[in-house]
Amino acid sequence: MRYAIPKTAAEAASLLMEEAARVLAGGTDLLVQMKSGVRSPEVIVDIKHLPGLRDISREGGGFRIGAAVSGAEMQEDAELVAAWPGVVEGVNLIGSTQIQGRATMAGNLCNGSPAADGVPAQIAAQAVARIAGPEGERDCPVAEIPTGPGKTSLGRGEFIASILLPARPDRSGDAYLRFIPRTEMDIAVAGAAVNLVLAEDGTVKEARVALGAVAPTAILVEEAGAALVGSKLEEPALAALVRACEAACKPIDDKRGTAEFRTHVAGVLAKRAARIAYDRAGGRA
Amino acid sequence: MKKIHVSTRVNGDEADFVCAPDETLLDALRDRLGLTGAKEGCGTGDCGACSVTLNGRLVCSCLVLAAEAEGAEIGTVEGIADGDKLHVLQQSFLDHAALQCGICTPGILVASKALLEKHPEPTDEEVRYWLAGNLCRCTGYDKIIRAVQDAAQKLRSA
Fold first, then answer.
1. CDD domains from the xrefs (chain B) (predicted)?
2. Which end of chain B is more exposed for a tag (fewer CB within 10 A), N or C?
3. Shortest Cα distance from B105 to chain A (angstroms)?
């Protein structure tokens, strides 16, 4: 086994073309997988030293978050938290303080867990990943990255270099909630993210709703967003949101939650997250 | 496997070691540098017994490759006391009997010190959430929380 520190994206991509190569950013998934024998990489490609990978930069009114930025660093960026509180709170739910010191939003996405807490709010936010690879760079919506448990649409030699959270219009807000049987340090049984933009009179103008842990990947539920548009989160709109979320759920049954329970909780969380997002957008739910 | 030479700083002192590419920082600290304060509990980032700071950031050293320490600044429990003089937190853990077997204690001291540097006046809830990644299987947590709060108060009035 080798440990490599590429200095350019092209060098990283070329290393990642090798047999059994793995990306190392925060390492909070990779090292656990190596320990348990799930993965035995031949080459570990540490991307933390590539230019820009550890930076949160402003771009077109939005935020470009390098793939090696930790959850703790995101939490310390007050402007980022003010603009995208739901995205940051999702990422900050991953693991303990120690894990937050290392774990990254891009790594949480690439690990491909259907229950990843960092992913639904990115999908609701219309985040776009910048992917580097042997052919150079390309942009891809975060929603199209996970394709199933532990699987992504990234090609051989490709890795995520950064994720762009777009500019926020006035009167916008997002939120993420998850259910776990404990109060901290657990894997989501269900999760819901809501991202809203309000009109001047407080009516919902745009809404995107994404669910986690209720399907093989985190999913965007377009009907759930549509249920809120034109409302001020009155009861009929919230009831339609819940129905749309429940209809979109295709969860597994396991020791942590039955399919029925996950489906019900996804709707409840979506409703509560919608109220928080509405409040953050300056409406009064 | 080709060995890697690593130059780093531990508790302010220069430290050099040679490690395997898949060796963890925890193993390098314990087996190469003889710093056995950080403990291996779970080895998978769940228990926090191996907590250290890496460039000022609290991490589990079992989830860091030793090779990643090149050029970094590492803080371990061995660096908390000033020679023979215990740190306020260490004395407070003794005063409050906030330990029994002691395996989790080095990690909790490192984590608590990182907490108080960032939040000098935490609420009990903040202490509990910050330390949620440090598991103690014998003392329970109340005495630990009291020890941290007492130390916080003493540090504030120092």
1. fer2
2. C
3. 15
